[in-house]
Write a structure and sequence with these properties.
The complex is a heterodimer of chains A (227) and B (800). With 227 residues, chain A is of the alpha/beta class. Chain A contains 7 helices and 10 strands. Chain A has a single domain, classed as P-loop containing nucleotide triphosphate hydrolases (Rossmann fold, 3-Layer(aba) Sandwich). In chain A, helix 4 runs antiparallel to helix 5 and helix 5 packs parallel to helix 6. Helices cover 54% and strands 18% of the residues of chain B. Chain B is built from 28 helices and 21 strands. The chains are: A alpha/beta (227), B alpha+beta (800). Chains A and B meet through helix 1, helix 2 and helix 3 of A and helix 16, helix 25, helix 26 and helix 28 of B.
């Protein structure tokens, strides 16, 4: 079952002389439960692509369907609801809410949806992520690796259709990076989540079911590890 | 870039929006200080002219000065002008009562006496008359005419009119003209009052000069008079009330200065705090703490150089508006003051304070910026100090998440919360402090009331209803209302008599039914519909209904019922028994008035007000003692001529228009500036809230972007930011109102006691402040929020 499909996605910045084509006619699809990594040199358009998939930015032309819905036909209000229910973000710079403690940060998407968090599920995530004794800490009392694990928790908490991670290990040392990747992989398998992750590290890319390569705004399939 | 300090202006140029906000807040503070100080300066200039017009241009007066004393004082180097002023009592001029006086010719201008026709009386048997009197039907005199004047002791003399001078509002309203004799003639007559008026030179130290005069000539205090208002306006008064006002002024202007500092500091604090990373990065690439400090200070300087001229200009414009209003309203009096009044004091204050505060305000954040650890920049962790008690996440469990987040954001950053609240609170304190001046103005200055008549007709024989109706029918007459005055014997429950009264009577014996035998008659006044309506302002209890009083035998009691205080303390429903030729009648007290705008010189027991119908029933009187007329503003002279045309000679025509206009002017001169102050401060406070909220929202661009990425909807975002802003607003309000109330109470109770102003809890002001703060706060987050939402999320998150 295809959870995500893009058709003819184009993004152009500027006009005339300064025109830059960040994405050129990108078409691909991702099935439910797949772990897709995106690789490519700096400035190739990886982040632009991921922003489009998460509806953080709008394409010049083309469509993105998530769970069968054309996300760019929604208005801002519908989009925000869609985002908190269907998309989990993991950023390179963690971007946790500094005033909220670990537990609150993790449950934030649910709280925003006025839902009562399923405490058992949340506790389970917190346990898996190794944050059980950090539940009431604030982000600035945590190490980088711990902060990124909180971000993973936040992305998982609403059981979204798809998780988008933009270089989640970019700020971490190799041990922490490995932990984070393992956790991501674990959660994808355990909760049958779909994950699309940008990475620079080809080692980590190989964890994925499929690898997409972006170069000069063109996306090509590289194939991946056999499941 | 030749020098690392060039980074400062470059940073500012790169962040135009933020820079503009910072500049705005400095502009606001400088405008506040320049505006308030220039307005104070202008107020004193205008008020000096107004006071000289109202009270005369002299500083002190010596009673019954001897020739020696006059010579000694007149010869002093710091004395500009002196003159003798004698009042000679009332006299009768061709059957009309007049007030005789004499003044040295060189001092006429100081007392605003202006000869319109002829010349000032200098020789024997010469007089000068007020214009309105000379033109009145009773006198009808021209320069060169002769007239008979009978003085109090009965002697009659013939005088020649040599001059006619300008109308004096007060004399005109009383219908008693002022008549000037020559000083030589006056010397021969017994004087009621004989004062020697002294005008000092502008630069003289008047308090010291007065003391010198008193000690060297051995003049006791009771022979010295002061023109207190003039001395107060030029800052030369040691009079208690004036000193109280000086102190209030001092305190309030200190608060204004403080407000300027707090506002600027708050903005700088926010702008530096949000740039922890920026400074950390600079530290990473090798900037020393001292260099960071220098950069922050350079930024401050760059901002000041742009903001101060704008702020000064804005402050001056506010002053111009006040000056222009006054000049437009009263061209003759303020014609000499230039329209664009430029106050050096105000401008200097604005510039100095602007520079100083930016310097101080940037010093602390600069220090903080210098302390930013390079690590913070790399890890990107914001430095928030959290209390050791870890947050249990209580708020998110109690409230919907966006509300919890908004409150959390505000409460967690204690320093920001403190300064934001301070900035709002000080505006409120300022506003409430300056409102003391409004109270002072209303209590300290006379104002015209809705019932103030333009023309009053009085007659000993009485004025008929028919004449009243005819007057009402004249074109240009707005309202006509008559009053009857009379005395009745009234008695009531003896327990209602005040202790002081019982004591002064040597005890009152209650007769049967608890009543008493009245020692004096009570004053009875009749009111018709208009006057009953106007009296509602003074109503303490009950109601004022003509119909009910007529049908249910009602009567209105007056609380301040006797000239020497309160003789009785009547309550609603009390029975009052009035003796009439046809027996005793019973009345019920239906309303209680605080006071009436008339005075009687008889020692009455109490004062009562009734309807015309009941008044006639009680006294048999049907004719009015006084008929008040209000005119519409057009063609007044025609209307006045028509009224005069229908009067016979038994009726006195009292014209209060000039006096009313003068009272209005005196009040307005003060009111424009006082309300100007309050308006400027309110405006500045509002701008301050808008600018701080703007800055605060703008500084959270990235944070808000993350929230949107995680799935916060536009509505939730609005709510969160609004709640945060309102939290700042409310804490500021709370602190401001509490401190403001304390300040008001202290100022009024300690410094304004001599004006009999009573401190009341300012409920109205607080409600107004609350509504305004919340409204403005809500309004001020709308535009920055819109701006942020218009940006793409990816754009915002990516931004540093």
């Amino acid at each position: 079952m295809e959870i995500l499909t893009t058709t003819g996605l184009c993004k152009t910045y500027g006009i005339g002389e300064t025109k830059v084509e960040a994405l050129k006619d990108v078409t691909f699809s991702v099935s439910k439960g797949e772990f897709v990594s995106i690789v490519g040199p700096s400035g190739s358009g990886k982040s632009t692509l991921l922003n489009m998939l998460g509806a953080l930015d709008f394409p010049t032309s083309g469509n993105v369907f998530i769970d069968g819905r054309d996300i760019f036909t929604m208005n801002e209000e519908e989009l925000s609801v869609f985002r908190r229910r269907n998309i989990g973000f993991i950023f390179q710079a963690y971007n946790l809410v500094p005033e909220l403690n670990v537990e609150e940060n993790i449950t934030l998407p649910l709280l925003l949806d006025y839902k009562k968090p399923d405490q058992q599920y949340i506790d389970e995530i917190v346990d898996i992520l190794g944050l059980a004794d950090r539940k009431h800490h604030l982000p600035n009392q945590l190490s980088g690796g711990q902060q990124q694990r909180v971000a993973i928790g936040r992305a998982l908490s609403a059981r979204p259709a798809i998780i988008l991670a933009d270089e989640p290990t970019g700020n971490l040392d190799s041990k922490n990076s490995k932990d984070v990747i393992n956790l991501l992989k674990l959660s994808v398998d355990r909760y049958n989540q779909t994950l699309i992750m940008i990475t620079h590290n080809h080692n980590y890319a190989s964890f994925a079911d499929r690898v997409l390569n972006v170069e000069d705004g063109i996306v090509t399939e590289l194939g991946g590890a056999v499941r | 870039m030749k020098d690392y300090l060039a980074l400062a202006p470059q940073y500012l140029a790169a962040h135009k929006k933020k820079t503009r906000l910072t500049i705005l807040s400095v502009v606001i503070s400088v405008a506040l200080i320049t505006g308030v100080f220039s307005m104070l300066d202008a107020l004193l200039q205008f008020e000096k002219i107004q006071v000289i017009h109202d009270y005369g241009n002299y500083h002190i007066a010596v009673k019954d000065a001897t020739d020696e004393e006059m010579q000694a004082i007149g010869g002093r180097i710091d004395v500009k002008n002196t003159g003798r002023w004698k009042t000679l009592g009332e006299a009768n001029i061709n059957g009309m009562t007049c007030a005789l006086g004499a003044l040295d010719e060189n001092f006429t201008e100081n007392l605003n006496i202006e000869v319109i026709q002829g010349k000032y009386p200098t020789g024997q048997n010469e007089i000068m008359l007020e214009k309105w009197a000379a033109e009145s039907i009773q006198l009808n005199l021209k320069v060169g005419d002769t007239v008979n004047i009978a003085v109090a002791d009965g002697t009659r003399r013939e005088y020649t009119v040599t001059g006619i001078y300008n109308d004096l509002g007060n004399m005109k309203a009383q219908g008693i003209p002022g008549v000037f004799l020559s000083m030589d003639d006056a010397e021969l007559m017994p004087a009621q009052q004989n004062v020697y008026l002294i005008e000092f030179k502008g630069e003289a130290d008047m308090i010291k000069a007065r003391q010198q005069i008193q000690t060297s000539l051995n003049i006791p205090e009771d022979r010295i008079g002061r023109n207190d208002r003039l001395l107060a306006v030029i800052g030369q008064s040691d009079y208690k009330a004036a000193v109280g006002i000086y102190q209030i002024g001092g305190i309030l202007f200190f608060i204004v200065l403080l407000a300027g500092v707090v506002m600027i500091y708050n903005t700088f604090n926010i702008s530096v705090m949000e740039r922890v990373r920026h400074f950390g990065l600079l530290r990473c690439i090798g900037a020393s703490p001292a260099q960071i400090k220098k950069i922050v200070k350079r930024e401050g300087l760059t901002i000041t150089l742009k903001a101060i001229p704008l702020g000064v200009l804005l402050g001056m414009i506010m002053t111009f508006v006040c000056c222009a209003l006054l000049k437009f309203y009263n061209t003759s009096l303020f014609g000499d003051i230039q329209l664009f009044y430029i106050s050096t004091i105000g401008i200097i204050a604005g510039i100095v304070v602007g520079f100083m505060t930016v310097f101080i305000a940037s010093l602390l954040p600069a220090k903080k910026a210098a302390q930013v650890s390079p690590v913070n920049a790399v890890t990107g962790s914001n430095d928030i100090k959290v209390s050791k008690n870890k947050k249990r996440g209580l708020l998110t469990k109690m409230f919907p998440v966006e509300i919890a987040l908004g409150m959390n954001n505000a409460i967690m950053k204690k320093k920001t919360l403190f300064w934001m609240s301070c900035s709002i609170a000080i505006s409120i304190i300022m506003f409430m402090g300056f409102n003391v001046f409004v109270d002072f103005m209303h209590a300290g200055l006379k104002t015209n009331k809705p019932y103030t008549p333009d023309i009053t007709l009085t007659s000993k024989q009485g004025i008929s209803e028919e004449l009243s109706a005819r007057a009402a029918g004249i074109d240009g007459v707005k309202k006509v209302y008559g009053r009857m005055f009379g005395y009745v014997d009234a008695t009531f429950d003896a327990a209602r008599l005040s202790d002081a009264y019982k004591e002064s009577m040597g005890g009152i014996e209650a007769t049967e039914g608890g009543l008493f035998t009245p020692s004096a008659s009570s004053w009875l006044i009749s009111y018709e519909e208009n006057q009953l309506n106007w009296a509602k302002d003074k109503l303490m209890a009950g109601e004022l209904s003509e119909d009910k009083m007529n049908t249910q035998n009602g009567i209105i009691a007056v609380a301040a019922n006797a000239s020497n205080g309160r003789n009785a303390n009547l309550q609603l429903g009390d029975k009052v028994y009035v003796r009439t030729p046809s027996g005793t009648k019973e009345f019920t007290v239906m309303g209680i008035l605080n006071s009436v705008p008339f005075q009687d010189n008889k020692q009455n027991l109490t004062t009562f007000i009734t309807t015309e119908k009941i008044f006639t029933e009680l006294t048999g009187k049907t004719l009015y003692d006084a008929l008040d007329i209000q005119l519409s503003s057009k063609n007044q002279e025609q209307t006045v001529a028509a009224i005069k045309g229908m009067m016979d000679s038994s009726i006195n025509f009292l014209d209060s228009r000039q006096k009313n206009a003068e009272i209005d002017q005196t009040f307005l001169t003060m009111a424009i500036f006082i309300y100007g102050f309050v308006a400027v401060i309110a405006l500045i406070s509002i701008l301050n809230i808008i600018s701080t909220m703007n800055t605060s929202v703008a500084s959270k661009t990235k944070y808000l972007g993350v929230m949107r990425a995680v799935g916060m909807s536009g509505k939730q975002l609005n709510k969160m930011v609004l709640i945060e802003a309102i939290t700042y607003g409310l804490t500021g309000c709370l602190a401001g109102c509490i401190l403001g109330v304390i300040l008001q109470k202290q100022l009024i109770e300690n410094l304004l006691t001599s004006f009999h102003i009573i401190w009341k809890f300012p409920v109205g002001q607080i409600v107004l402040i609350l509504i305004f703060t919340i409204f403005v706060t809500a309004l001020s987050v709308i535009s920055p929020l819109k701006r942020i939402k218009a940006k793409g999320i990816s754009e915002v998150i990516g931004a540093l």
